[in-house]
Amino acid sequence: MRKLCAASLLALGLGACGGDGNDVTPTIIVGGGVHDPGIDGEVNVYVIDEDTDAPLTGATVRVGTIEGTTDATGLFTAASEDLVGRQDLVVKATNYAASVWLGVDGANVTVPMTKATTTNPADVPQAELGGTITGWDTLPAPATGHANVAIVMYSQSREIGDDDGNDLPPPAMNSNVCIRGPQPAPCNWRINARAGTIAVAAAIADYDSKNTPTEADDTITINNFAIKQPITVVDGANQTGLTLDLLAGGSTTTASVNFGTPPATYTEVAGIVGVDLGSTGVLRLAQVSPTMNTVTVPSLSAISSATGYELLAFSQEDVTDGTAGQSIVIRRAITSPSSIAAGAWLAAPTGLASDRMTVSLVPSAEAIVNIVEIDTKPTTGQGNRAMSIIMLGGASNTITLPVDFAPLPSGPLTVRANAFDAPEFDPRNFEVETLIDSIERLAGESIVLN
User: Fold this and answer.
1) Separation CA 89–CA 76 (nearest Å)
2) For residues 335 and 252, what is the distance between their CA atoms, to the nearest angstrom?
3) Are 398 and 43 in contact (CB under 8 A)?
4) Where are the beta strands (DSSP E) in 326-391?
5) Tens digits of per-residue pLDDT, 195-225?
6) Model pTM score
7) For residue 253, which of 282, 286, 295 has the smallest C-alpha distance?
């Protein structure tokens, strides 16, 4: 799943505010966001790179009908007596997707821009890590037809996506997997991990081939874990000799997941149970499904810095053309592994249609944030972002695209309408990271324009 870009997560839902003489000092919001609610004659717009927070000089900004370019600090200030109440804002910059905010309601705005081209995994700050697992060679020999398996992983950030370092492939195929059959064999694992302070862990499991030549009936049953933390990863600085320590006996428990009732047409359902380690990230350890909804996980007391369990639950349509509707539930701070529940799922926007000049949809009524993202659609591989449209409070269900200001590329396009539910989010005074951390549900529906 593509990264939930910062610009695509900003949607506001309160009534217009103006006429209060809101003349404020320009202030950049780290990571992006909106401050100083109410617009009365002036809007300060900073434009930054969403990945680095670096200011973008020379970006073109339109606030209402006022246009200008950002200075060396990334700032453009729109000032007019006509700027009262909510305003529509569009930003474009070379090599970045256009960003459209409909109904902005703050005098200080920082727009984080998404690069137009898809991030290459090799460009994500990362390093190769390698090591072993203490006691691997002395594990009891597996039964006939079985094997001991260790699957090594690193803690992920809370963002869900594929271009932020959460899903880096290992240096070589299966280099993150150790297998031991009847005879002892060393475990020399290697992974690529995101830069930052992380944990590295291994799920230790029993692999049962069922003594059949087919893999369809094979099972993997987790029975323990090994971990090392914290590890500081510096971009390009590879590390070797890292040792993961097996958890002591009695350090695991059984997690049980209730998937509730996903949207009726979203028949493909699965989930991942993880352990939240605070600033070190989330160890997303074990996959579950409605038919196999129990799994072994570490006890929270067995891992220092563990603050609770996390559930990522996914449901989607059985569609293979790239337009599958999807709904995702994120539950955090769960303290009881025996009562992990997805709860209510979010319905995606409906009625999505576009003629390249407009986009129409019925927003999800339960969502606080509704967003449209337009990507190119290549014949192979992943498309690139062309435009993000954030539907703020007061926006209609038909959006007139600013193609006079930021034309869409020719060729096939994928249009995706996304909905986000973040109950604790204050839409008139927020930072992007606060919004990301508060998201509990999201859902989306797509169409293709040829």
Assistant:
1) 12
2) 14
3) no
4) 326-334, 340-341, 350-354, 358-362, 369-376, 385-391
5) 999 999 999 999 998 888 888 888 899 999 9
6) 0.86
7) 295
